[in-house]
Amino acid sequence: MYTTVGGGFGSRKAQRSTEGTGDTEDLHGIAGVCYSSSTMRTYIFKVVIEEDPFEDGRMAYFASVPALPGCHTWAYTKEELLKNIHEAVQGYIETLIDLGKPIPTDPHVQVYDEPLVSVAVPI
């Protein structure tokens, strides 16, 4: 049984209890996917961002993830674009997991065998 016990924006913390024993295991996840904290892995994907102006001159931005074919999005601002591409990557990876397919690793992907937090900041 899984029980949500708290969490912040975009994250979920849950507990799995072994029926009849009273034992629990903390689980952590993002966007509805729970992972045992003892088996969590962090993937950091390179994102390519390009200016993509409309014909009338209004600015827009396009982002893609080279390691994830077809994973791309656009937005009017860079802030919105980063949020959108994060959601696109998250959905892409959740779909791979649901289908039992491996998460791609290549020179554009950094993989760590522990939970980490990454933050993108303007330079």
Structural overview:
The chain folds into two domains: 1-40, no CATH class; 41-110, 2-Layer Sandwich (Double Stranded RNA Binding Domain). The chain starts with a strand and ends in an 11-residue tail after the last strand. The model is unreliable at 1-19 and 23-35 (pLDDT under 50). The protein has one helix at 78-98; strands at 2-6, 11-17, 24-30, 33-36, 42-45, 48-51, 61-64, 72-75, 109-112. It is of the alpha+beta class and 123 residues long. The longest helix is centred in the C-terminal third of the chain and has 21 residues, at 78-98. Helices cover 17% and strands 35% of the residues. The protein has a four-stranded antiparallel β-sheet with strand order 1-2-3-4, with no helix packed on it. It has one helix and nine strands.
What is the CA-CA span between the terminal residues? Answer: 45 Å
Our count of helices gives 1
Query: What is the residue-mean pLDDT, rounded to a whole number?
Result: 76
Report the helical percentage.
10-25%
Supply the number of structural domains: 2
CATH architecture of the largest domain: 2-Layer Sandwich
- CA gyration radius, whole angstroms: 18 Å
SS-derived structural category: alpha+beta
Biggest sheet strand line-up: 1-2-3-4
The H-and-E topology, N to C, reads as: EEEEEEEEHE
Spans of at least 5 consecutive residues with low confidence: 1-19, 23-35
